[in-house]
């Protein structure tokens, strides 16, 4: 029942990203729009303006100021009465012809009209229906956590179909907001294009004079379709919008990749992060294709309750042979075994969390780092030895299997080989648990028993909170 989270948080994620809730609330609070009939009329006017073309197929606005054109594009979203896409965000290292290619993708789909909003973003599912009032139902399609323990958010508020939704109400739940923000590219930017007074204002400004630079680039093509491209540079961040001239639909956005990505031996800027808005359209397509309810028996709640971590390892307290691990001249009282992630996108943050603990070891423990790639070995070997010992995965397969340590996890053992702690991830909190366990063990506490007892208390607290938010 462990929630997997992406810990990198940067300026970009203030929505890549632009849609962190503080930005959403600041932009959208109290924002009300005209009636759907007027929206349809504005849709038609926008389509007629966008369809005016020059004889060579280029829109008249091509030579206009790039900032003005992008403002018009966002305005097209703000006045639409219908929008739908099948968007996918992709983080990529290298190219399809590269042996070092790495690709991670996630859905970022949105359906919208004045009566309904559907969002499939990462494992998050949000459904908003507006009749006499607005009702939101949200859940997590996440088998590894039991679909967030089957919790399904259901809340409602007074609303009017004449007005557009306010995202501060849709995203009022704290857990829902944090899970969207923790996704590969943050919350779906389409929501801000559709509902914000000034879209993307958390990253650059369209309505005021700033140092942000807006520049026309050469046209690009997606599936043989020629598209306009506008580059926006704000501080050190660069964005590229690929725009369909005749409709002002955004077909692709290139975002700056997160800052906490692992270095490679390839060419500079080999990481890319882009949102492809496949099948995007302003034309109504009939009934939506997203399921309206979860595919599991829901436990309805008025607010999500964070699920407990996974239960402690059943191996806690057992002893293991450490004789072949001792390379150093003096044996340490404790051993910290850290199995690095195989996922290149999360390696760097894991590495930062692990190495931050090295100064605090202070002769107390030897840190055994297990590497799955040659580049990881090279990074590990730059660390001080002792206290760090570097192992290739093949050397440690038997030990990792006996300890049941998957990639990204870590364990603490005493000098006599007793297993004291297993953590399934290496974030700041779990690294702190390492030193807490060592302190307790030095003090003579039965650490495995204490961990099991503490976990029972966590479960009881969780059940009490869950009961309090159920209808």
List keywords for this structure.
globular, 13-stranded mixed β-sheet, disordered N terminus, 471 residues, 2 domains, 13 helices, 25% strand
Short description:
It comes from Neorhodopirellula pilleata. The chain is of the alpha+beta class. It has 13 helices and 18 strands.
Q: What can you see in these coordinates?
A:
By secondary structure, this protein is an alpha+beta fold. The protein folds into two domains: 291 residues, no CATH class; 147 residues, Glutaredoxin, CATH 3.40.30.10. It is built from 13 helices and 18 strands. The strands form two sheets. Strands 1, 2, 3, 4, 5, 6, 7, 8, 9, 10, 11, 12 and 13 form a 13-stranded mixed beta sheet that branches. The chain has a five-stranded mixed beta sheet with strand order 16-15-14-17-18, sandwiched between helices. A hairpin with a 2-residue loop joins strand 8 and strand 9. It is globular, with a radius of gyration of 26 Å. The chain starts with 20 loop residues before the first helix and ends with a helix. The N terminus is likely disordered.
């Amino acid at each position: 029942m462990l929630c997997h989270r992406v810990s990198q948080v940067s300026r970009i994620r203030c929505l890549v990203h632009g849609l962190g809730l503080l930005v959403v609330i600041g932009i959208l609070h109290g924002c009300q729009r005209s009636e759907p009939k007027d929206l349809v009329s504005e849709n038609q006017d926008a389509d007629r303006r966008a369809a005016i073309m020059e004889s060579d197929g280029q829109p008249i606005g091509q030579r206009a100021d790039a900032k003005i054109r992008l403002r018009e594009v966002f305005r097209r979203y703000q006045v639409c009465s219908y929008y739908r896409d099948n968007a996918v965000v992709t983080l990529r290292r290298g190219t399809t012809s590269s042996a070092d290619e790495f690709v991670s993708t996630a859905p970022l789909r949105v359906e919208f009209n004045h009566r309904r909003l559907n969002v499939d973003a990462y494992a998050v599912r949000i459904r908003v229906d507006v009749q006499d009032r607005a009702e939101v139902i949200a859940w997590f399609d996440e088998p590894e956590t039991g679909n967030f323990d089957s919790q399904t958010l259901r809340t409602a508020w007074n609303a009017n179909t004449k007005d557009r939704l306010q995202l501060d109400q849709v995203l009022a739940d704290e857990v829902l907001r944090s899970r969207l923000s923790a996704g590969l590219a943050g919350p779906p930017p389409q929501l801000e294009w559709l509902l914000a007074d000034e879209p993307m204002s958390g990253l650059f400004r369209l309505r005021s004079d700033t140092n942000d630079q807006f520049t026309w680039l050469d046209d690009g093509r997606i599936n043989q379709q020629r598209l306009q491209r506008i580059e926006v540079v704000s501080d050190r961040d660069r964005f590229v919008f690929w725009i369909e001239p005749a409709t002002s639909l955004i077909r692709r956005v290139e975002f700056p990749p997160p800052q906490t990505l692992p270095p490679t031996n390839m060419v500079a800027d080999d990481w890319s992060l882009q949102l492809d808005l496949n099948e995007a359209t302003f034309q109504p397509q009939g009934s939506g294709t997203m399921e309206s309810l979860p595919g599991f028996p829901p436990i309805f709640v008025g607010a999500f309750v964070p699920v407990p971590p996974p239960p402690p390892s059943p191996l806690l307290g057992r002893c293991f042979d450490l004789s072949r691990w001792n390379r150093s001249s003096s044996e340490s009282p404790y051993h910290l075994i850290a199995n690095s992630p195989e996922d290149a996108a999360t390696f760097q943050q894991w590495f930062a969390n692990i190495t931050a603990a090295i100064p605090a070891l202070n002769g107390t423990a030897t840190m055994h780092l297990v590497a799955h790639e040659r580049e990881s070995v090279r990074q590990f070997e730059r660390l001080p030895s002792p206290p760090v010992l570097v192992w290739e995965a093949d050397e440690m397969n038997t030990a990792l299997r006996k300890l049941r340590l998957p990639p990204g996890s870590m364990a603490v053992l005493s000098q006599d080989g007793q297993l004291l702690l297993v953590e399934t991830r290496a974030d700041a909190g779990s690294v702190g648990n390492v030193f807490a366990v060592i302190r307790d063990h030095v003090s003579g506490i039965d650490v495995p028993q204490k961990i099991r007892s503490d976990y029972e208390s966590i479960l009881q607290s969780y059940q009490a909170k869950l009961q309090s938010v159920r209808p």
